[in-house]
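Please produce the structure of this protein holding S-adenosylmethionine.
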Amino acid sequence: MCLDEAKKPRDFTKFHEINTEILWRWLRRCFADCVILWLAKHVRFNQSPTENHQTMTPMRLCDHVQLPPDEVRLLPRGWQILGSMILVSIPHVLEDHAEAIGDALLAMYPRCRTVLWNRGVSGAFREPHCEVIAGVHETETVHKENGCYFKLDVAKIMFSQGNLRERMRMGDICDGEVVIDMFAGIGYFSIQIAVHSHPEKVISIELNPTSHHYLQENIKINKVDDIVLPIHGDCTVKSPKGTADRVIMGYLDSSQEQLIAGMLAARKGGILHYHEATPTVLAYQRPIERIREAARIAGRSVEILECRTIKKYAPGVVHVVVDVVVDAVLGMSAK
Ligand SMILES: C[S@@+](CC[C@H](N)C(=O)[O-])C[C@H]1O[C@@H](n2cnc3c(N)ncnc32)[C@H](O)[C@@H]1O
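Below is the modeled complex.
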């Protein structure tokens, strides 16, 4: 630097410009950090585990589990998320990799706590066969569906994904009615009806003590104590007779005895929703024949309103619902 230059007064305008630029950049950075922090705290980027469901995700399991190519193609492509639990079916040939699959799923869904190997349901109570393969050994959770909360132990109680649309439909059509939910479980139908329709009363009958316990909990959690009456016992014995505007028989293996009890529970002009697992070739003929036979024994008349297929249940078997009016009364039209 020469002497002349040293004597020159400093150009404070330029200095000020540079500092403003730095300050501005720094402020922008701070603002961006704040926004990111706020979003991370308040917005759920991933699918919330408290909402559904059967997940066919763009995040692929094969990107997270190291397997030889012939085994990679056997990896599960879908799983069910219930609350903070992930339920996954794993082919037996991948048994040795179950833990790695569980760990990978937890890495993909950081909000979930436990992964269970889902080996299907069986028995009159439709109890699941599950085992924890990753995460914490806790199987109770609260699952959110259609604005309703369902507390359940996923290792003891099933929650069928495929019935969602039917549950939502029921939650839409019971305004002012007395409803009997003959196979209430943890309140799959009852809670949705109580929360979303404006029924006069929902009588929810459940035989399995564990399901009945969660039904009571769910009534409290969803604040529908004044609407839903939980009854523990066999619906063939406990269903009140001749009072219901609507009877829901949401059980796939109903016996004829239960179907007769359903007929008798409906008032004149009441509607019965009869669910059945039917061989595809017999849909809807077999459930209709069973309904007509039960009506004959119960001494009631039936009029078929509608038949619907809910889902594929097993190879060659479908889950169907048949809606019927019992003792249709002239001038009292079914909704
Ligand atoms: C699992 S639920 C059906 C699923 C449900 N509809 C849904 O939307 O996912 C069927 C329930 O019926 C109950 N159940 C079976 N037999 C019964 C009976 N005789 N009386 C009352 N409940 C019964 C089972 O314990 C089970 O909780």
